[in-house]
Amino acid sequence: MDEFESIREEVQNCRKCTLCETRHNVVFGEGNRHAPIMCIGEGPGYYEDMRGRPFVGKSGELLDKIFAACGFSRQTHIFIGNIVKCRPPENRDPKPEEREACIPYLYRQIELINPKIIILLGATALKGLIDPNARITQLRGQWLDWKGKLVMPTYHPSALLRNPGLKRDAWNDFKKVIDKYREIVDPSHYCKYH
Ligand code: SF4
Questions:
Q1: What are phi and psi of 110, to 5 degrees?
Q2: What is the CATH number of the domain that holds 40?
Q3: How far is the CA of 89 from the centre of ligand 1 (A)?
Q4: What's the gap in Å between 27 CA and the centre of ligand 1?
Q5: In a structure prediction context, what are the per-residue pLDDT tens digits for the chain, which is 194 residues long?
Q6: Measured in angstroms, how far is the CA atom of residue 99 from the centroid of ligand 1?
Q7: Nearest by Cα to 118 from 168, 60, 78, 83
Q8: Is residue 191 part of a domain?
Q9: Is there an atom of ligand 1 within 6 Å of 102 CB?
């Protein structure tokens, strides 16, 4: 078993925080394990918990539309995961101790996948990876650095569903990702809308 699969096995059996007591399924993450882009959200919601897959509810549908508009697909360009791999009850924010318990798995996934670009979806992802005091409203749309990797924070798709007025800002953030992808990964990347 390679390292990637051994992480998968560890998380399937993980009981490092109390979220293990209420989960139905661990959500390891999915996509291309050599993806140039990693997308990181907050944690599984109801549908993700029931199916064991990331971003499969309404937020996931919107995210897939955004990926498609960018000319990206989950299977080819992206690996998608979360800060915590088990659903917080009632979709509450993960607690700091839950983030701290879970994030070493994400660090190992990032190291193995070795993406060129990391997209952080929402405040919890930003706080979890960059700084617990960071604010998404202040940092979204700006390129950040995490251990030499380019990081673009933007709004979580659930925020876009709650407040469609944020969609324009989010699309501007994704256009920066498209530009950077063309600059450092594939100059011929085709995108109908940008
Ligand atoms: S959320 Fe992470 S640390 Fe907590 S039980 Fe699940 S896999 Fe383990």
A1: -60, -40
A2: 3.40.470.10
A3: 13
A4: 9
A5: 799 999 999 999 999 999 999 999 999 999 999 999 999 999 999 999 999 999 999 999 999 999 999 999 999 999 999 999 999 999 999 999 999 999 999 999 999 999 999 999 999 999 999 999 999 999 999 999 999 999 999 999 999 999 999 999 999 999 999 999 999 999 999 998 89
A6: 8
A7: 78
A8: no
A9: yes
